[in-house]
Amino acid sequence: MNVTKEITKIENSAVKLTATVAKEDVAAGYKTNLAKYAKNIQIPGFRKGHVPVSVLETKYGESLKAEILGDLIDQALNEIFSQEDVKDYRPLPYAQPRLEQDKLPEFDVTKDLVFTVVYDVFPNVEVKNFDGITIKEPQVTVGDTELNNELKAIQERNAVVIDKKDDDAVEKDNIVTIDYKELDDSGNAKPDSERQDFVFTVGSGQNIYKIDDDILGMKKGETKEITKTYAKDDENADLAGQTKKISVTVKQIKIRNLPALDDDLAQDVNEKYKTLDDLKKDISRNLELAKSRKLSELKSQSLLSQLVEKNPFDLPKSMVQAENDSRWNMIAQQFKTTPEQLDKMVASSGQSKDAMLKQWAGDTEKALKSRIIVDALLRANNISVTPEEIEEEYKKIANDSGITVEEVKDHYKDPRAKEYLIDDAKENKLYDQLYKKVKVQKGDKVSFEELFKLGQEN
């Protein structure tokens, strides 16, 4: 097919492609397709395959022309997109070319066929501006506090919950079971406010009315009326600035009987630990590893955020939509429902879909631009990894995880899993190069706990 093309870039990483199919090919294509239809169509009064072309044109002329026009356009586009000089202008897989203004071109077998389509392409990004980029690395120390917090968590996970004596009072950290209801001015229960057998840990604040301190000292079977006035800026809008009267009955009081921090506990956690010191050393190592990983994540987030700002480019609308659709499907899976049902749930709650997407999945455009910049830099810097470097990755993972190299290799024997490992190795190699082009300096001192709250807005 003799087809010429003209490609023009337009906004939001889209292009306009005008194609011209020579009239000889238009006529030949029309004739070929018409003969194909004549051979296969059945019309009363004619044997299959013996319908005269003139009869076919008279009966189905306009509809046939529309079908043949569509076939010719598809053939022309397939030929254009197969050409090497168009590789940077091929449509995204989820952005099929659409006729400009959704209008079919004129179809005349005596004339050239000229049509224009518009579609989205992958952004062509050149990352050149590294000026003024500064990365501040938080300063974090892992010490006895963090170790003791982990040991306490282990104790709580291995604790035995037992009932307190009937005449013992509620204390902080007790696990209580209560019935409660909100009362009106006449002392009657407000509709839909009653709850029975509600369980929470005193001091956790994990109850609607925040009555942790108010039930301290109560005993099993005791009922108490609590009047509370809540601050105007309370995080719960239903409580903010309100005065509530709540009736509470304590039904059960339990305590966690924590096991002693000794060799027996260490052995209960994992048979690989012979002593408590073995467990402590492993915890400290894992804390340092978690810190290192989080710092690496924050550094890369900071770098990419600044590169996105300093090297602006447009995203195709279809790419953003496809990413949002994918994220919406993942949120639906988390809620154990379908995307369609999630749409209805959000609509009925009065919350916007965009707000929920941002809350659960972060800034879509920023995340996409960061990924595209990484891909562009990987190509521009010809980043690759050797088999020897992957072997070193296996050893590092084995050391960090406390398992053998063979176990690591077995985990990555699936080709897709190994591809992820290779991609991570490439990105780490890229970041090592990029950090030499920017300023990395010490940031503020933060606690281990605070470290893991940083960067959550991304």
Can you offer a commentary on this structure?
By secondary structure, the protein is α+β, with helices and mostly antiparallel strands. The chain is 45% helix and 18% strand. The longest helix has 35 residues, at 276-310. The protein is extended and about 105 Å long.
Radius of gyration: 34 Å
Ranges with pLDDT <50 over ≥5 residues? Answer: none
Please trace the helix and strand order, writing H or E for each element: EEHHEEEHEEEEEHHHHHHHHHEH
Overall number of strands: 11
Task: Provide a short characterization of the protein structure.
The protein contains 13 helices and eleven strands. It is α+β, with helices and mostly antiparallel strands and 458 residues long.
Q: How do the helices and strands line up, and which of them pair or pack?
A:
Blueprint: E1 3-10, E2 14-21, H1 23-40, H2 53-81, E3 98-99, E4 113-120, E5 134-139, H3 144-157, E6 160-163, E7 175-183, E8 195-201, E9 223-229, E10 243-257, H4 263-269, H5 276-310, H6 317-334, H7 339-349, H8 353-361, H9 364-380, H10 387-401, H11 405-411, H12 415-434, E11 439-445, H13 448-451
Parallel strand pairs: 5-11
Antiparallel strand pairs: 1-2, 2-4, 3-4, 6-10, 7-8, 7-10, 9-10
Helix pairs in contact: 1-2, 3-5, 4-5, 5-9, 10-11
